[in-house]
Amino acid sequence: MSGLDSGAAERRRQFAEEARSERPDLALLCLLLGAEAGPVGPAEVVPVTPGEPVPDPYGIDAAQIELDRLAGLLPYGSRSPAGWASALAELLGERCGFGGSSADYQRLDSSLLQQVLRRRRGLPILLSVVWIEVARRAGAPVYGVALPGHFVVGFGDREHPVLADPFAGGAPLTGQDAELLVTGATGAALEPSMMVPARPLEIVLRILNNIRAWAAARPERTDVALWAVELSLLLPSHPARLRYEHAQLLVQRGEFLRGAAEMEEYAEILAEIEPTTAENIRRKAHAARALLN
């Protein structure tokens, strides 16, 4: 992760520290992730006196303020889980226009919380993060539900949740609706384990996986693939194979020595359990070093 400027290095440090905290802040992690894509555009920054630095170039503080503002727009008073779902749908889906469409899957900013708050469009999981963070600030019993292929939110009793689909503007989901979503995505039946509330770090890793998939379909965007992998490696729990993916990206970007060294380190990890794979990786490391000649 060399080559980072001091500001980027500090954001990475903050991301790693938050990810390892006792109660990771989902919004902050998503916003630090979003900052990796670069500063927000000129239309989104707060105007300042000429010559003064922009106070919030990555939109982190502004996004937190917007989440607070949206939470403050919810009607005050206790309500049932169904009442919370209905209130969030009316505010975020109808009044504010948060939702998604198939076109949003083609955009990187659909996975960046700052941009989702600005555009009010995004992937199901990022729209769900907006719902979770707004509802949580208002005191709702809310959580994410990581259905295969389509993230939604739940309210109330986790054994019998009230489900809503933020991607569809907050449309209510019955158990049968959830079953159809899962069957359509996987061909398999809905399992009880799929309804377990998603933890913040699981949500963040799934967002990063989506970004890696977006970049993989665009070979010219190894820059995005690299930061997505590097953030994934900062999470306390991540697939070991990401280390090899990171090494491959370094080689693709011309950092042959670093990439080869990481391949060799990964091969050592695999040597006892998958010796054939380890040897293949060592050969690739040797080939990467040869590219310097």
Automatic annotation (TrEMBL):
This is Protein SirB1 N-terminal domain-containing protein. It comes from Streptomyces rubiginosohelvolus. PANTHER family: F-BOX ONLY PROTEIN 21, SI:DKEY-261L7.2. Pfam families: TPR_9, Transglut_core2. Belongs to the UPF0162 family. Signal peptide: none annotated. Residues 68-209 form the Protein SirB1 N-terminal domain. InterPro entries: SirB1_N.
